[in-house]
Amino acid sequence: MSSTEQGTSSAAPAEPTTAPESAAAPEVPESFYYVHGKDKVVHKVSAGALQHSALIHGMISNLGYTEEQAKANPFPFENIDGDILQMVVDWCNQHKGKPTPPEDTNLPKQKEKLFDLVLAVNYLEIKELLTYCCKQVAMMVKGKSPEEIREIWMIPTDAEDEAAEKEAKKRAGKEAAGETAAAAGDAK
Amino acid sequence: MDQAPFRFVDLDYVVIREVLKTLDPIDYINFSKASKSCKRLSTIKTRYKVSLTFTDRPAVWIGTGPVTYVMKWTDNSLIDGSRWTETCQGKSWKRRLTYSENPLSSMKEFYLYARSLMGVELDFVLMNMDDYRGECREIVDWLRSNCLESSALSVLGERHRREELQYALDNLKLKDSLKIRVTTIEQLPLVIPESIEELHITYGSWVTIEYVMSLKMRNFTFHGTKLANQELNVFYKSWIEMKSHQSLEYFEVNLTDEEDFVAVGLRGIPYEMGPPRPGP
């Protein structure tokens, strides 16, 4: 059940969250895990870096993989694009065991990437990175009018919302009618 | 502009809330106006201190720590959309100017909307009576019906009827501070609400010693009075001997006769002379 090279019975990652480097402290061998996204490209990430993700941290704690098992069974995140997962892994590596600064200027400015990054980070439960991403999303509409905000964030107009609602009701009605007819057919 | 899709409302509700919490109050208000569904999403009740200034360009000031967002309205369409930021001693004021055919109505409407959307607490009201001759009572009535109370009020203006100013003092609920920089035609005493802690009168030609003796605040500042040194001496003695003004902590007044002040104003009173300071 060991996840570290010392063979401890705990599956918790070997590294503490704060910087372990100290002249007197003995060198602790790092344990690694593997993750892949939609593109199946496997990323090797240290347990310390993965501590940023509450989801992965929980998975590690629950599964208690050895390093060999972890290598053979990378955590699959099929809902995350490869380049986005790469960004997340890079961020976790850069901020491994470090206090996170109040601002992070390295986040993507492109809307599509940022949107996917927010989805991924929220899914992986990386709180600090999510905070940065949310700030970046908020910056998109800084000083904008309601109309501009609607355009930038692709918010449907009231008319579009109403039309979508009508359409959904219509569809639900049809489905209900279909189910009733099917049930009547079964009864016969 | 980047044309890639960013469907904000498709984000997880937790993320949407996190983003909305990050928006500054003006952006948050604008988001809530983007559609009915945005209004429904705008349920975060961050508490803000708000000031209202009734001047030639009426404004709503919304403070968030070191940054204050100032929404001003103007009837000059040429300067619509102007923005500028002022910074001083680590604080900044981000100002936006918006055109309106009726700036006062737009300002009131904005305040009421902000109040319905967020937790706003009215901190300060400033009214320049010169900019609203004949309309001051209407403003006071609006404030009375829409704002429970304000921490502070400043009124300014020249040559207004006393009853117009008194109407404001009688009808606005104040907690802390009242600053009156108004000259009245009649130059008659004003009835000051007893709820306040601090009173500042800039044009105090009507302030008599009887008037000073009747006040109960913690802090008075009077300028432009005609109080004689003999009268000030009576007041000081009464204060020192705790015969009156038991809550008073600070008193400032102009001197009509500086030369005789020590000899007459401070007669029989122990004192220390501090460094001279500039006038008001």
Automatic annotation (TrEMBL), chain A:
Pathways involved: Protein modification; protein ubiquitination
Keyword Cell membrane part of the UniProt annotation: no
UniProt biased composition (Basic and acidic residues): 165-177
Keyword Isomerase: no
UniProt keywords, alphabetically: Ubl conjugation pathway
Cited Pfam families: Skp1, Skp1_POZ
InterPro entries attached to this UniProt entry: SKP1, SKP1-like, SKP1-like_dim_sf, SKP1/BTB/POZ_sf, Skp1_comp_dimer, Skp1_comp_POZ
Full protein name: Skp1-related protein
Lineage, uppermost ranks: Eukaryota, Metazoa, Ecdysozoa, Nematoda, Chromadorea
Gene (UniProt): Cnig_chr_III.g8742
UniProtKB/TrEMBL annotation, chain B:
Residues of the Sdz-33 F-box domain: 190-253
Annotated F-box domain residues: 10-45
InterPro entries, per database record: F-box_dom, F-box_Sdz-33
Source organism superkingdom: Eukaryota
UniProt cross-references to PANTHER family, sorted A to Z: F-BOX ASSOCIATED DOMAIN-CONTAINING PROTEIN-RELATED (PTHR21503:SF8), F-BOX-CONTAINING HYPOTHETICAL PROTEIN C.ELEGANS (PTHR21503)
Protein name, UniProt field: Uncharacterized protein
Source species: Caenorhabditis nigoni
